[in-house]
Amino acid sequence: MSGERNAAQMEGGREPTLLEAIAVIAVAAVLVAMSVRYWETDVHIALVLSATVAAAVALFVLKFPWKVIEEGMLASILMGMQAILILCTVGMLIGTWLLSGVVQTMIYYGLAILNPNIFLIATLLICSIVSLATGTSWGTAGTVGIALMGIAAGLGVPDPVAAGFIISGAYFGDKMSPLSDTTNLAPAMAGTDIFQHIRAMAWTTIPSYSAVIVIAGVMGMGYSSNAFDTEKVRAIQDLMKVEFFISPLGLIPPILVIGLAACGKPALPSIFSGALAGIAFGLFQGASFGTILDVMQNGYTPDLPARLADLSENVPELLKLMAENGLSSFSTESITNAAAVLKELLARGGLQSMMWTNSLIICALVFGGVLDRCGFLQSILRAMMSRVRTVGGYIFAVSAACLFTNMVASDQYIALVLPGRMFKSAFDKKGLHPRMLSRVLEDTGTITSAIVPWNTCGAYQSNTLGVPTLQYLPYAFFNYLNPIVGIVMAYMGIGIAWRGKDGEPVIAKTRPAGL
Fold first, then answer.
1. Domain count, the chain
2. How far apart are CA 424 and CA 434, in angstroms?
3. What are 288-337's pLDDT values in tens digits?
4. Do 292 and 282 touch, CB atoms closer than 8 A?
5. Whether residue 396 sits in one domain with residue 276
6. Domain of 314?
7. 271 lies in the same domain as 407
């Protein structure tokens, strides 16, 4: 794509051929696929072995010094350290919010005001607003997302469906918020400013989001209020009230986090402030400081719901425990069902709960770092652009490159940086405004990260919401409709921005004469 020597050549090794790059990626794809589908195990070791293969080829075939390969791994991990620290902080926040009844408060009032018919639309809009205000899809999922999963369980909405709409709303807000790190990174890679970037994204995001709202409305009608089990909802609410002091005061910690983020405060201190508020509320609920520290480390384990659920086969003891806690007005079936829901939903959080995801992130970033530093991805992406001529082809190629990078490098930041860096000169030569490149980077690079199981984002969302990525994927409509809409609009010539003589965008189907 340019006559300049690439980074690989400058660091002592030669650039891999297309065949060599494809071979390394193919080995990785087979290892990951076999781990997921055949061996039915986690992909961590598959990614480590993939990184080993890539490093061996770079070391013995491409003649890279080991120091360069290792620097690539470490640089990649450094790029993902903010995500790892946010994960750790969110784990501690979830633990304190569960111990202090903050999450239970959000579930309690959510069950009081929502019904199945409007739940999906409400979920989509709530997550969109929170994520737009805070600029973080991760923070949205880790706070209101968990509460909405609890409400879904009470309303009879399947977990994968609820998770899909939570993620759709969270990623809409993330990609459109000027506070989001990806919304700032994409235009930086493309060479435009954030406001041009957001205006460009509106062309593809508004129709995509509108379609998801319609889908939410239609699907919501399938969860009829006629089938709404009011006794189950009351049982869940009363069971939480027995253990926790439920009041609007419990909404202060999430309001604090959202407010700090909306004021432009950094994500880490904003989220940790919410954890500190959770500590204060936990002490108010009567928890000892030692218990709070243990929950921040190991997560929260529900007490009464677990005991009730475990007594489902011992009716006399179950009735006795229900009487002791003022739950005798409910049937044993309603109480055991509600207890089972809360036992599974509330047993989460803590620093250690994020270690599986953090280890996956590190394994993925090590592999992605070798691929990036040693030129494997660059060789493939360059080949993808060699025959592209039309604007639609350019958009499709970058979109495919972002998805490809999300799948093999397993990190959304790499999926923005690498394609952005590779295709910038091509878009410039074509006469396209840089905001076209930044738009497609976010349309695909940011939001498809959440639907790849071994990607940092997919792993985080799955772990936080408690739903496997492949189960919520069909319902994360925004995350795959938006890239498709962007590609289709590009081929139709809608919303194409050309670079004007003054550097401002000129919207036209074809390149205007004189530009």
1. 2
2. 8
3. 999 999 999 999 999 999 999 999 889 999 999 999 999 999 999 889 98
4. yes
5. yes
6. 301-347
7. yes
